[in-house]
Specification:
The complex is a heterodimer of chains A (376) and B (327).
Chain A: H1 42-67, H2 81-88, E1 96-98, H3 104-109, H4 114-122, H5 131-134, H6 145-159, E2 171-176, H7 183-194, E3 199-205, E4 208-209, E5 212-213, H8 225-229, E6 233-237, H9 241-256, E7 262-267, H10 286-293, H11 297-307, H12 313-335, H13 355-375
Parallel strand pairs in A: 1-2, 2-3, 3-7, 6-7
Antiparallel strand pairs in A: 4-5
Helix pairs in contact in A: 1-2, 1-11, 1-12, 2-9, 6-7
Chain B: E1 2-5, H1 6-20, E2 24-28, H2 44-48, E3 53-55, H3 60-72, E4 76-80, H4 91-98, H5 101-104, E5 114-119, H6 134-138, E6 144-147, H7 151-163, E7 168-173, E8 180-183, E9 199-202, E10 207-211, H8 215-228, E11 233-237, E12 240-242, H9 246-256, E13 259-266, H10 271-283, E14 292-296, H11 307-310, H12 314-325
Parallel strand pairs in B: 2-3, 2-4, 4-5, 5-7, 6-7, 10-11, 10-13, 13-14
Antiparallel strand pairs in B: 1-8, 6-12, 9-11
Helix pairs in contact in B: 1-7, 3-4, 8-12, 9-10
The chains are: A alpha/beta (376), B alpha/beta (327).
Bound molecules: thiamine diphosphate.
Chain lengths: 376, 327
């Protein structure tokens, strides 16, 4: 017996379909798109390049720290740097980011110290930064939950009456292709749409949800889902930092001026394992990885910089050196991160004093003290 | 008899159930080609095909909700929830639908659905990967809730659970997945032990220690340590939380007069509270001390660098045992 419907048809439309917004080819050639003009100074481009390289260096260091047992886990962004830096650099101080657990590049753009991200994966806390201070919410591990929070936050911005003013901000929610199957994400689309909330849904379609390919989540290109909910969807080359910047900038601007939500699908690829505990050789082809390597987000900016004479070897070398320094520093500081005090278990569970917390904390302290007596 | 890890025993149990009954399906995220993130379903899709071992879209409510529909159509779905903390998106389907359709239909509708949940901490994971949500489900009438603790039992329990005409929430102690034991895989289903009978896994006379899932091994270690100091602990593996085998518990506590309950979930309003209340009702005049509970704190599961403090270990069990004697 075969059941036809069990086998997912490949989704319609590949990366090369006309809908894909691209401003920089994999070969490093600048192309124009009528809807997404982008004016960047030489300094801007060098800055984006530096961001990409540094974020990759941070990510690579975190992977090796995990291998050395310093972190319990790491979700690598390898291959997704352009999607994150492009969208991250489109944000202003008034915007608020709702990330999942892989948005290290966006965190970097928002000024969250990489060590803070490492601390979470090392297991010293659940997220050691103040979301409001960075316009960057805590990482969310439960798939899709944050899209609703982002939508509600956007509804709050709307109520504050700032849309259309220079103080306007928007919310941006990051999630993966797998997340689009969750009820929460679909509910977020409904709320955002019917309330015309100032939000950008930024889906990094890296083709995989752990071992499951995109075909197991959708039969149509993801950006087209938006249409069914009543707002625009755009597919952008997720390995093209220029295009990600231009498209996200436009979507955010639309949100800030009261034109409602946009779904951006950044078409990209997860070059590494899902996390450091995953084994992609069980489910995916080496040849796919090789094909995507040719679209590397950093290589193409470097090619463009060279081609247009905007950099010399000294600049490229200095960025590489900076990456190495950041990585080395991160390694030292990660190893030196102290374990939290045991009492931290009871801290911040409630905002106001709570009798049961006090009781359990005192009992625990007394229990721990019995060991000190034994030693003494 | 073969030696298997707990994870492998579950795999063999599901395999046997699928061989015996073509209506048995396995479904969940990554259960196919990857074999599940813990490899518990490893090789099943290769042997039974994509029609019976289904990599589902990434949606827990969808997994359990469609399993209900498949069961309505005569199938016996075994759902895998990837990690304990991700069962909550499916909680609505489990609590409002799965648990209640038999009653709602005046017994006409049977839902033989198994929801497998890797549970508990101790593997150094990030948030939402180390929880013990058993009390939520034990509290919901219409569900059977069980927890295996070792490979031999895992094999028989998963087969019994799949054969159950009622929905079963099946907890698997993830930090024990790699523990090995001798498993007899030749036994016929009808000869397997009752899914809901508690087992005395370590006979003793001084204190009854009640545990299930990952805590059973900890309690056995505590019993071994206590024995060197001349104290004899009787360790009971409850195996089933709902229904609860109170007869086995009562027989033991009535004899020892002391009882310590151990679980990883927070103590406050946890499953231990139910045990303590029932034991008090049944054994009040035979108790030498109140029933004491050892468990997680009433806090969210902490970051992994603190989990050794959070999880009840041998010392905390022995400390509670000491306290029952201090009364
Ligand atoms: C509700 C929920 N179910 C399951 C998981 C386990 N899980 C973690 S990541 C992941 C795949 C996510 O894929 P996708 O949304 O495409 O994002 P990606 O990791 O590829 O960036 C799964 C199933 C989870 N974190 N949350």
């Amino acid at each position: 017996m075969t059941i036809d419907s069990m086998r997912g048809r490949p989704p319609e439309g590949g990366p090369a379909e006309p809908g894909l917004v691209q401003l920089l080819t994999p070969e490093g050639e600048r192309v124009e798109h009528p809807d997404y003009p982008l004016d960047l100074s030489a300094e801007d481009v060098r800055g984006l390049y530096r961001d990409l390289v540094l974020v990759r260096a941070i990510d690579r260091e975190a992977v090796s720290l995990t291998r050395q047992g310093e972190l319990g886990l790491w979700a690598s962004l390898l291959g997704q740097e352009a999607a994150q830096i492009g969208s991250g650099r489109a944000l202003t101080a008034h915007d608020m980011v709702f990330p999942t657990y892989r948005e290290h590049g966006v965190a970097y753009c928002r000024g969250v110290e990489p060590l803070k991200l490492l601390g979470m994966f090392r297991g010293v806390n659940h997220a050691g930064w103040d979301p409001a201070a960075h316009g960057f919410h805590t990482y969310t591990i439960v798939i899709g939950s944050q899209t609703l929070h982002a939508t509600g936050y956007a509804m709050g911005i709307q109520r504050d009456g700032v849309l259309g003013t220079p103080n306007a901000g928007a919310a941006i929610a990051y999630f993966g292709d797998g997340a689009t199957s969750q009820g929460d994400v679909n509910e977020a689309f409904v709320f955002a749409s019917v309330f015309n909330a100032p939000i950008v849904f930024f889906c990094q379609n890296n083709q995989w949800a752990i071992s499951e390919p995109l075909e197991r989540q959708s039969r149509i290109p993801l950006y087209r889902r938006a249409q069914g909910f009543g707002f625009p969807g755009i597919r952008v080359d997720g390995n093209d930092v220029f295009a990600c910047l231009a498209v996200t900038r436009r979507a955010l601007e639309n949100a800030r001026t009261g034109q409602g939500p946009t779904l951006v699908e950044a078409f990209t690829y997860r070059m590494g394992a899902h996390t450091t505990t995953d084994d992609p050789t069980r489910y995916r082809l080496r040849s796919d990885e090789e094909a995507w390597k040719l679209k590397d987000p950093i290589e193409r900016v470097r090619a463009y910089l060279r081609r247009s004479g905007l950099v010399d070897d000294a600049f490229l070398a200095s960025v590489d050196a900076e990456g190495k320094d950041i990585a080395a520093d991160l390694r030292t500081r990660c190893r030196a991160l102290p374990d939290p005090r045991p009492e931290a278990i009871f801290e911040n569970v409630y905002a106001a004093p709570h009798a049961l917390m006090t009781e359990e904390q005192e009992a625990f302290a007394a229990y721990l003290a019995t060991f000190e007596e034994e030693v003494a | 008899m073969t030696t298997l890890t707990l994870g492998r025993a579950l795999n063999e149990g599901m395999r046997r159930a699928m061989e015996d009954d073509p209506k048995v399906l396995v479904m969940g995220e990554d259960v196919g080609r990857l074999g599940g993130v813990f490899r518990v379903t490893d090789g099943l899709q290769k042997d039974f095909g994509e029609e019976r071992v289904i990599d589902t879209p990434l949606a827990e409510s969808g997994i359990v909700g469609t399993a209900i529909g498949l069961a309505l159509r005569g199938y016996r779905p075994v759902c895998e929830i990837q990690f304990d903390g991700f069962v909550f998106p499916a909680a609505d389907q489990i609590i409002t639908q799965l648990a209640k359709m038999h009653l709602r239909s005046l017994g006409a509708v049977k839902l033989p659905v198994v929801v497998r949940i890797p549970c508990g901490g101790g593997i150094g994971a990030v948030e939402h990967h180390s929880e013990s949500p058993e009390a939520y489900f034990a509290h919901t009438a219409g569900l059977r809730v069980v927890a295996c603790s070792n490979a031999a039992d895992a094999y028989t329990m998963i087969r019994r659970a799949i054969a159950s005409p009622d929905p079963v929430i099946f907890f698997e102690p993830k930090r024990r997945y790699w523990d090995k034991a001798d498993v007899s895989t030749e036994v016929a289903l009808s000869d397997l032990p009752d899914l809901h009978a508690a087992q005395v896994v370590q006979p003793g006379d001084d204190v009854t220690v009640l545990a299930y899932g990952p805590s059973v091994k900890t309690c056995l270690e505590a019993a071994a340590a206590a024995a060197t100091e001349g104290r004899s602990l009787e360790v009971i593996d409850l195996r089933s939380l709902n229904p609860l085998d109170m007869d086995t518990v009562e027989a033991s506590v009535a004899r020892t007069g002391r009882c310590v309950v151990v679980h990883e979930a927070p103590v406050f309003a946890g499953f231990g509270a139910e045990l303590a209340a029932r034991i008090t009702e049944r054994c009040f005049y035979r108790l030498e001390a109140p029933v004491l509970r050892v468990g997680g704190f009433s806090t969210p599961y902490p970051p992994s660098r603190l989990e050794d403090h959070y999880l009840p270990d041998l010392d905390r069990v022995l400390d509670a045992v000491d306290r029952t004697f201090a009364w």
